[in-house]
């Protein structure tokens, strides 16, 4: 499985670069994209739903205003527990074009990310030799986390107004939502909750609405 994922990852990196030879007049517009990588990974791991969307709009000659949004519903089971998470996350920021060719662009930028999520546990087993084992629930709690990102991205036009591209993210956690009874394993939009910094990768398909 790891070798297959490595091969797919390599292809995703190579495809946009190979498409940079396209021709056409440079146009402005709003691009709306869907995160194929998060949806595919969630499907392969079988833990629920991870649907991410993004939009960018040209601003001047070299800047893009970026907004992301996503919905996550994860279920994780193991010996003595079943944890569920329902969440929304958003990211917003600006990209600066460091290289462009017609409708294709390489850019760097920053994001501010925010996530609000609800988690709960059921069928949680607490073992105790003296009082005896107890199986119960962990009540639902609403938590919030936020972080910042430095990003490097590439987008290329496959054909009229249809693009593919990827974004590499370096993330730094600013605040993590916590509660005493249950530790959150995952921060939607960020990654594993136990890491103060992490890397992320997203592969998108876009449709542009010209103006």
Descriptive notes:
It is a single chain. The protein is mainly beta. It has one domain (2-21, 32-210): Porin (Beta Barrel), CATH 2.40.160. The chain contains two helices and ten strands. It has helices at 2-18, 36-45; strands at 29-35, 48-59, 63-78, 81-101, 104-126, 134-159, 162-175, 186-187, 191-192, 197-210. The strands form two sheets. An eight-stranded antiparallel β-barrel has the order 1-2-3-4-5-6-7-10. Strand 8 and strand 9 form a beta hairpin. The protein starts with a helix and ends with a strand. Residues 1-24 have low confidence and may be disordered.
List the helices and strands and how they pair.
Elements: H1 2-18, E1 29-35, H2 36-45, E2 48-59, E3 63-78, E4 81-101, E5 104-126, E6 134-159, E7 162-175, E8 186-187, E9 191-192, E10 197-210
Antiparallel strand pairs: 1-2, 1-10, 2-3, 3-4, 4-5, 5-6, 6-7, 7-10, 8-9
């Amino acid at each position: 499985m790891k070798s297959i994922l490595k091969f797919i990852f390599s292809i995703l990196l190579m495809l946009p670069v190979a498409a940079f030879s396209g021709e056409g007049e440079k146009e402005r517009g709003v691009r709306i994209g869907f995160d194929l990588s998060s949806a595919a990974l969630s499907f392969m791991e079988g833990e629920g739903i991870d649907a991410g969307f993004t939009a960018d709009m040209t601003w001047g000659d070299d800047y893009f205003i970026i907004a992301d949004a996503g919905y996550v519903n994860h279920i994780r089971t193991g010996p003595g527990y079943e944890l569920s998470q329902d969440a929304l996350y958003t990211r917003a920021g600006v990209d600066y074009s460091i290289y462009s060719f017609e409708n294709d662009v390489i850019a760097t930028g920053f994001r501010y990310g925010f996530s609000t999520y609800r988690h709960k546990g059921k069928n949680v087993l607490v073992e105790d030799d003296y009082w005896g084992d107890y199986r119960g629930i962990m009540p639902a709690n609403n938590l919030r986390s936020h972080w910042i990102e430095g990003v490097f991205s590439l987008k290329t036009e496959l054909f009229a107004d249809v693009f593919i591209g990827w974004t590499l993210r370096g993330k730094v956690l600013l605040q993590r939502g916590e509660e005493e009874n249950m530790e959150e394993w995952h921060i939607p939009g960020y990654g594993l909750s136990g890491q103060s910094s992490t890397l992320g990768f997203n592969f998108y398909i876009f449709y542009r609405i010209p103006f």
